Amino acid sequence: MSISLDTDNWTESCYTSTLDRLNWINASLNCQRVYNGRLMMLKTPSTATRLVIDNPGTLYWIGLSSTQTPGVFRWEDGMPLKNDSLWLYGAPAPGSQKQCVYVKIQDDRERYSNEDCSTELPSICEFEGGRNGSVVCNTLPVVPNATLTNVTSDPLQGQLRPGTRATYACDYGYYFSKEVAEWTIECKSCGWWSSIPPCTAVDCLTPPEVPFAAASFESTTFGAVVAYTCNVGYRLLPPNSSDDTRLMQCDAFGSWTNSSEIVCVVHCEDPPTLLRSTVYWNSTMVGAEALYTCDTGFVFNGRNGERRYMLCDDSGNWTADTDFYCEHCGAPPRLAHATVMNGSTTYLEAAAYSCEEGYRFGGTADPQHVVTFICDGQGEWIGANISCEGGA
């Protein structure tokens, strides 16, 4: 973590912490080599607290030691420590050979203690920033879901020096914050970039409710898709024979597309089947009709017409004005003074008639003559128009 303090005409005291573990001497040399600075001198109250807030229990080397004069703790600029109230309880122990000092956060305050200088610990460096110094910022940050659109570089060798500004634009469907799609960062005088928020996807929030439908979705952000399926007993309008679902998608403006185009209406299941009949239909929406015709050799009960209809009503049921079914020829017609012999009344079956004793069919002399009627494809018994004549 890094911070900067005491801004004055682009000259700042800059501080950065590192978790790399080094002994005190190497930590001091590292601050010189990397930052042209030194180990931190805690002369600004709460500076360390701000730096190491995410690691409050960690020990950090600072620029305080008694290596020059045993028992006398001095900062790296040679100034003696003046605030003894920041030592941890019992530190430093009199006559201790532990000459180097670390800081830790305890009870939300900075506390010092001394340790053997060969111990390897994280450290805090301080260095001077400045617009006209040797400080440069590292490579421009990569911002997910954003594009770098402009960089205003310092004229000096085109380096990313303090004052350089870089502008990012969020990708389509993403924003830094509500309706803010561009953000500019600046190389600060301490050599790090000012903060930039993430580009987050537009959120369409909860999809709209569609009456009589269930919604299925995994996300509500840009590009997300919600699938609607009608509840049992309902069907999408207009119907689509290839797909039983309708989709909405979260667009780049935070709206669900097609939100007014999904309608579920009551529908009937497929029309019921009837024995010995064929049914035809092209819709199961409310108001649709199903046409029934009897198979060959059968007729509708009542023998009134060759077609019957059912209607899909607004409760999702197929209904008809009267019940109907397909039947065969029924019992053969009765002839006076005749006996009928048949075993079936279905299509192409025969009914054989013979006259009772003392009677004979008109126009015949043979009392044993037999007349046959046939059940035709229209459900009618077909035969000669005859009668048994005679008698005592």
TrEMBL record:
Keywords: Disulfide bond, Glycoprotein, Repeat, Signal, Sushi. It holds the Pfam family Sushi. Residues 10-126 form the C-type lectin domain. It comes from the Eukaryota. Residues 135-201, 202-266, 327-390 form the Sushi domain. InterPro entries: C-type_lectin-like (IPR001304), C-type_lectin-like/link_sf (IPR016186), Compl-Cell_Adhes-Reg (IPR050350), CTDL_fold (IPR016187), Sushi/SCR/CCP_sf (IPR035976), Sushi_SCR_CCP_dom (IPR000436). SMART domains: CCP, CLECT. The keyword Signal applies. This is Uncharacterized protein. It comes from Ridgeia piscesae (Tubeworm).
